[in-house]
Amino acid sequence: MSFFEYKNGILHAENISLTKIADAVGTPCYVYSRAAFETQWQSLDSAFGDYPHTICYAVKSNSNIAVLNILAKLGSGFDVVSEGELRRVLLAGGDPAKVVFSGVAKSWSELEFAISQGVNSINVESISELERVQEVAQSLGKIASIAIRVNPDVDPETHPYISTGMDEAKFGVPMGAAFDAYIKANAMPNIEVHGIACHIGSQITKTSPFSDSLEIVLQMVKRLADNQIYIKQLDLGGGLGIDYQGETPPTAKEYVDAMLDGTKAHGIDLPIAIEPGRYISGNSGLLLTKVEYLKRNDRKAFAIVDAGMNDLLRPSLYQAHHAIWPVTKNTAIESEVFDVVGPVCESADVLGYDRELTIQAGDLISVMSAGAYGFVMSANYNSRLKPAEVIVDGDQVHVVRQREQFEDLVKGEQIIEEE
Ligand code: LLP
């Protein structure tokens, strides 16, 4: 089901036309659908049935506090990778006891904060980190609940920049060293071995990489149990892909069933946590932008729009494809093939190559599937102001982040005072 559809030839988010949003808020602007977020989250939740589970939404995919609040109200947990993300979760009413903390470079102060908040699990990515967690917990007089994030060396068959579970990646502890890491952790006075974690990559469109890595994780769980180390939670990471341009990723049910089949085959019924980001947020948002100019040279036609690579980096960084739709269907003019480009002074500032569109200067267009890794990866390059973010809820529009102002851009900067 899509919550972004044409009604009377005009693209809507739920019951609100995007023209209305552009009039009220301006462009460029990220537009999200509350119902889309909720539907995606619930599809995963219900796929587990009464099997014990926690859905730890990957905050990095879209960290607006209104989004986090909507998910917290559904009972979501969260996967965070920095103190900033953890603070966002707390601000949005999330429960720290349902937070897993991933990331290869957790600093002393980040660990202090997370351990004092009592997060569900610190997902430890190296032996040196494990030693630091012990020291921090000891200095606080607390016990830190941990998982070792293992690297199962499974190919997720996705873009190399978003593969994390192969042996050349910086992520996780290799399987060969993981057992020893657990033995070591188990002997540490301020560490409680809680779980085992793994995340192999993102935008995965088959179940087999998930099943393969689960199998490796379960072998480790058994080996640990044989050595009196009892894992209490399987954290199977995120990575479930979405449809950007006709991909057919597993449904929530197929994805969850693949995991439950895997655990059942081993007679293991441990609680499962997952860390989905894109599956929940990706198709829950779009980037609304206006055509400033049409420009033609001998070889190409360009639609120059007011959003650029600083607003949505994915096409430039990963050659990612995002569908581009006109907001108003125009039948009075001919279609033409355009490169849709932004205002940034870089040739890579392209939102989409060779798109057939029926548009003219001044029209609004929508870059679809931009709810995940969109606003969160935006930057101020070329001193451009970050766009506004809006959530549509039925026939209500909520601005959940104001468009930046010039004052925001220079906040904290200072001219040197001459003596
Ligand atoms: N858990 C961990 C430990 C992760 O590193 C990630 C994503 C996730 C969960 C969520 O993965 P998801 O369910 O969203 O696939 N910027 C890239 C994606 C980077 C993903 C990084 N890690 C993009 O725009 O495609």
How do you describe this structure in short?
The chain is an alpha/beta fold and 419 residues long. It has 12 helices and 21 strands.
Structure notes:
This protein is α/β, with parallel strands linked by helices and 419 residues long. It folds into two domains: 4-32 and 282-409, Lyase, Ornithine Decarboxylase, Chain A, domain 1; 103-274, TIM Barrel (Alpha-Beta Barrel), CATH 3.20.20.10. It has twelve helices and 21 strands. The protein has helices spanning 18-25, 34-47, 65-74, 83-91, 108-117, 127-140, 175-186, 208-226, 252-265, 278-281, 314-318, 406-409, and strands spanning 4-7, 10-13, 16-17, 29-33, 53-58, 77-80, 99-101, 121-124, 144-151, 173-174, 191-197, 233-235, 272-274, 285-296, 301-305, 324-326, 336-341, 350-357, 364-367, 388-393, 396-401. Strands 4, 14, 15, 16, 17, 18, 19, 20 and 21 form a nine-stranded mixed β-sheet that branches. An eight-stranded parallel barrel has the order 5-6-7-8-9-11-12-13, surrounded by five helices. Helix 8 (208-226) packs parallel to helix 9 (252-265). The longest helix has 19 residues, at 208-226. The radius of gyration is 23 Å and the shape is globular. It binds ligand LLP. The site of ligand LLP has 22 residues, from helix 10 and helix 11. Ligand LLP binds next to helix 10 and helix 11.
